[in-house]
Design goal:
With about 220 residues, the chain is α+β, with helices and mostly antiparallel strands. The chain has two domains: about 90 residues, no CATH class; about 110 residues, no CATH class. It is about 50% helix and about 10% strand. It is built from nine helices and five strands. The protein starts with 6 loop residues before the first helix and ends in a 6-residue tail after the last helix.
């Protein structure tokens, strides 16, 4: 998947990934207090910096957040600062095409631990399409469906067929904030089949997304 084109979008991508990771940690009970939130975000940012998950142009944003988080501790209110970064960039995201927002969301999923792959026809129908364990977070996209799903202006014209394993609910929440819905598809021949469908973009935060009932 290609990198976001502007610094605003790259910064927004960083903030969105961090907020989604924090939301999932809260949901799983790994973050239950402000001190745990600060520790989680500090560690997440440090890992992102060390592993070079994001474009070098946002390294300064990561370094600044890390410095504040380490120096001020709970008083840093890292979650609020990162949410502000997202809100300041979200307007640009709402203006993007369906394909751009999907690419952006899938990159965010990758940065929160999802294994993303596009499969040819043989791979799509094979038993090896998904990981052996249903607990592994994996996204498998049909290449044929992907090529037919968008028009020349990068708008969606057909549902995108995907196979999913792992935390589908978490993925649904992530994509929802980027204006995409996840729905199960009934097909006895292809297990774990879902569709990705573009919807109106509301520039939501992960917290707002979490308040809604997920589609899957």
């Amino acid at each position: 998947m290609s990198d976001p084109e502007s610094l605003t979008e790259k910064t927004g991508h960083l903030a969105w990934c961090a907020l989604i990771a924090l939301h999932l940690a809260r949901r799983d009970g790994r973050v239950t207090s402000e001190s745990q939130e600060n520790l989680f975000l500090t560690r997440w940012l440090a890992d992102a910096r060390k592993q070079r998950r994001f474009h070098r142009e946002v390294a300064a944003d990561i370094d600044w957040l890390l410095s504040v988080g380490r120096r001020q501790g709970v008083r840093a209110r890292l979650g609020e600062k990162i949410d502000y970064l997202w809100q300041s960039c979200a307007g640009k995201m709402a203006e993007q095409t369906d394909l751009f927002r999907l690419t952006w969301a899938l990159e965010a999923a990758k940065n929160t631990g999802w294994d993303n792959r596009i499969l040819n026809a043989r791979e799509w129908t094979s038993g090896a399409a998904l990981p052996a364990s249903a607990e592994v977070n994996a996204i498998r996209v049909s290449r044929a469906s992907f090529e037919a799903a968008f028009d020349d202006d990068s708008g969606q014209i057909m549902p995108l067929m995907v196979r999913l394993s792992g935390d589908v609910r978490g993925l649904t929440e992530l994509l929802s904030g980027c204006g995409w819905g996840v729905l199960p598809a009934e097909d006895e021949k292809i297990p774990a089949l879902y569709t990705f469908t573009a919807k109106s973009q509301d520039s939501q935060t992960p917290a707002a997304v979490a308040e809604k009932e997920p589609d899957a």
